[in-house]
Amino acid sequence: MTPAGASELDEFALIERYFQRPVDAPWLRLGIGDDAAVLQPEPGCELVICSDTLVAGRHFPHHSEAADIGWKALAVNLSDLAAMGASPRGFLLNLSLPEADHAFLAGFSEGLFELAQQFQLALVGGDTTRGPLCITITAFGQARGGRVLRRAGAQQDDLILLVGDLGGAALALQRGASADAALAQRLNRPRPFVSAGGLLADRAHAAIDVSDGLAADLSHLLRASQVGAELDLDALRLHPQLSALPREEALNLALHGGDDYALLATMDADNWQQLQKELPQDLAAAFSVIGRIHGRAGILAIDAEGRKQPVKPSGYRHF
Ligand code: ADP
Ligand code: MG
């Protein structure tokens, strides 16, 4: 509960106006308006749930477009669900707002629901308070029983697959206002690989999404799986605008920059062959093989001349 100023919408009017949308979903027994939501997952499915917080001034600049903030708050969660091989269904929204600013709320909800509608996601509840601008979304989805993809599970000789390209968001951050619109989109409106996640669920041994940089996130997967990796630097798919940079600098952004929301997965060569036959054309272009799992801990990068070098697992760190 939040006491609202006389000129502002009260909390309930605000929720009704900006966030309560008609939902027609068989799994949703009760949505916004009661003390809690009631969900009924499909028989044979497990509920997969994750949560991410965006803090103004830390995860996005204070002057960001409200619509971009709404989009991104949901996108980062959908990327996590995709990395688990789950199919998203809905989400909760916890909003801390300095004031009930109409322009902000209109923009924010527009960006949020633009992405939500692409995957027919329902907003089923949340909380609204007054405070510094901070957005937490808790998203949930489902996966057929026993089919979730974990970070643990990568096996010796698995191929390492990348879905998406790397370094665009980090370059956009570096360029700031001088980034062109296409590049800025990478940072402000990441496109989570939702359908790729569903396809990987049937084939991959392990997966993770790349949010803190390839080196850091691959290291998490390797540690959880207790294996190591050889990374083929020339096979890394970089954002097109990185090709204008010196090679060293481009690789640094690709390996250690954050906010890409690409997916990493490992699978054996037979499964990769099968998966290639199943991939729709538009998605096939996003997949590439960037390395191989081996038994020794850590990441070894291999360049065009076959030279091997250890890669530091550094990425974005909050603390
Ligand atoms: P309570 O006081 O019981 O926690 P609230 O008054 O906080 O309930 O919220 C009333 C209803 O509105 C609840 O169903 C809650 O889930 C929903 N709600 C609150 N804030 C939001 C929001 N930002 N987005 C969507 N639903 C919300
Ligand atoms: Mg409440």
Short description:
This protein has ten helices and 13 strands.
Can you describe what's shown?
By secondary structure, the protein is an alpha+beta fold. The protein is built from ten helices and 13 strands. α3 (102-118) links the parallel β4 (87-97) and β5. α2 runs parallel beside α3, α2 (66-83) runs parallel beside α6 (194-201) and α4 (168-175) crosses α5 (181-188). The longest helix is centred in the first third of the chain and has 18 residues, at 66-83. The chain is globular and about 65 Å long. Residues 1, 15, 19, 32-35, 93, 95, 123, 125-128 line the site of adenosine-5'-diphosphate.
Summary keywords:
319 residues, disordered N terminus, 32% helix, binds adenosine-5'-diphosphate, globular, single chain, 27% strand, 10 helices, alpha+beta
Structural class: alpha+beta
Describe the strand arrangement of the main beta sheet, using strand numbers.
8-10-7-11-9-12-13
N-to-C SSE string, H for helix and E for strand: HEEEHEHEEEHHHEHEHEHHEEE
Mass-distribution shape: globular
Strand content: 25-35%
Q: Outline the low-pLDDT stretches.
A: 1-7
Distinct small-molecule ligands in the complex = adenosine-5'-diphosphate, magnesium ion
Distance between the termini: 31 Å
Rg over CA atoms, rounded to whole Å, is 20 Å
Given the structure, what is the number of helices? Answer: 10
Largest sheet: 7 strands, mixed
Helix content: 25-40%
Q: Report the mean per-residue pLDDT as an integer.
A: 94
